[in-house]
Amino acid sequence: MGYTTRPRTEIIDFWPDDGPDHFWLTSSSQASIAAIIVMAKERWGQDIDLNDILIESQRIHTECVYYDLHDPNDWTDFIWIGRAQP
Fold it and tell me: Does the reported pTM lie above 0.70?
């Protein structure tokens, strides 16, 4: 989704996009490791090696970007799931 501007305002929000070698979950999605593996296999094929699945946590400024960086309500916790490159 990337950057968006709220209607009738100059407020900019951001939401990360999925890519061919990664996808994002919000921390509130409460996905189990088993569910993440199923999602990875659906995206990259059943034969993906579990050692090639990378998982990281990231906190991203998603609301009112470029304004009031210290407001904790404007940040979202994500789980980034990626595929290791050969």
Answer: yes
Total number of domains in the chain? 1
Distance between CA atoms of 52 and 49, rounded to whole angstroms? 5
Domain that holds residue 71: 2-83
Q: How far apart are CA 4 and CA 2, in angstroms?
A: 7
pLDDT tens digit at each of 86 positions of the chain: 899 999 999 999 999 999 999 999 997 888 899 999 999 999 999 999 999 999 999 999 999 998 877 888 999 999 999 999 86
5's CB contacts (< 8 A; 6+ apart) are 11, 12, 13
Contact present, 80 and 55 (Cβ < 8 Å): yes
Parallel, antiparallel, or unpaired: how do β-strands 75-83 and 22-26 relate? antiparallel
